[in-house]
Amino acid sequence: MKLELRGITKTFGTFTANDHIDVVVEPGQIHCLLGENGAGKSTLMNVLYGLYEPTAGEILVDGKSVSFRGPGDAMAAGIGMVHQHFMLVPVFTVAENVALGAETTKAGGFLDLEATKARIREISERYGFNVDPDALVEDLPVGVQQRVEIIKALVREAKVLILDEPTAVLTPQETDELLDIMRQLKASGTSILFISHKLREVKAVSDTITVIRRGKVVGSADPSASTTELAALMVGRPVNLSLGKAPAQPGDTTFRIRGLTVLASNGQRVVDGLDLEIAEGEILAVAGVQGNGQTELTEAILGLHEHVSGSITLDGKELVGRSVKEVLRAGVGFVPEDRTEDGLVGSFSVAENLILDLYDQGPYARGLAMSPEKVARNAESRIQEFDIRTPSGATPAGALSGGNQQKVVMARELSRPLRLFVASQPTRGVDVGSIEFLHRRIVEERDKGVPVLIVSTELDEVVELADRIAVLYKGRVVGVVPQDTPRDVLGLMMAGVPAEEAATEQTTAEHTAAAATQSTDEGDAGEQPGSVQA
Question: Where are stretches of biased composition, namely Low complexity (predicted)?
């Protein structure tokens, strides 16, 4: 199926989100859409999937103009979408989730779940998904849940599949598996519209790349283009993708965690006897698949969990048992993993969000009264310094794009004297140009002598920022390793393999591969005279 977007324009009042966008997705093609946050990619996908009506332009399927009044119309036309945040019911089985909204019935009008299960097994076997139709979704790993979303689209006979940031929650191994699945889908004739900010993955799997900047198509590229060229096209200026930070100069160890245990509401140990320490002027990055205790670790540091035992000390002072306000006043800067829920008050202005942890202190407050002028001046300064794209400091934070909301949180936390900086997913949803800037700001904080703790599921980010890497698995530290540890070793550790064992497995695998290559080369050399003679 061939999909065309011609002159798609979408306006909201005086704001133009999409400006005469043209995109053509050929049958059996993986077409990548690249762009900064706020560039208009999501709006365009919402238009394509029937969630928004275009202000101007048209959508064509196999050369015929179509109009979608909702996702049902898009699905009926052969367009499926896997959202970044999965649209699954956790307490339902795989089969129940797949059947939802496209129920098959048998005599008497009863739900024919067996037919759905058979279809799931058929698709799962064809693409090697290994998905059990009877499994509860809440019991499945994130990577398998994503496969369920893909199966949902294929059961509805999607000919064009939209994948919105599909690797955001996957391990390196799961990412590789997904890229293989995409290639299989392509080989079977399915077209894929692939939205991603990860240039390495885009280059690995795309057939063609369209770049959107500020609502307009600014160019296209082949996967053979360098990451530097793609990044420059995305942001409109040259981008240095290599941080090139100087080696750390660690000072005294001022932050220590000893025997930290955090219990979930059901009594399960989500952090289990964890030990870590960070010196002044050092970045310790925590790697791991999301859901292995990273969230609870960072929230325990801030004082957000009640069921905490063990010790967390900063500058020799105990933080366990202290209130969030006391921890912040002790000099802890904190960037939560979910900015909309925990990092911002969406209805408050950008200016107000920039002083959330200082609103009752000078120079922003005098007694019970705040100083609007000083709050506004601070906002002007931070907006300029951190390149926060907002009409003004008075704009509600909830009206900004995700990347700009993240800049607000980072600007607030990095704009006061710190004794410890903790950032969980510091650049989640941030475009490549802003990632470059935020990474440099984090390193600047390190170079001021501040201990820095980074938690990220982006392995590239971990390797780029870290001076040392701690890998977390089921609430425990599998190992703390140098920054230059091979990615394959880190991947094994993220699956629970201890550091020494992971290094040994990797060395063995390399030796086996080398021996196999040598054997093949020798065999080829032995056959050469015969083939020449022939």
Answer: 500-518
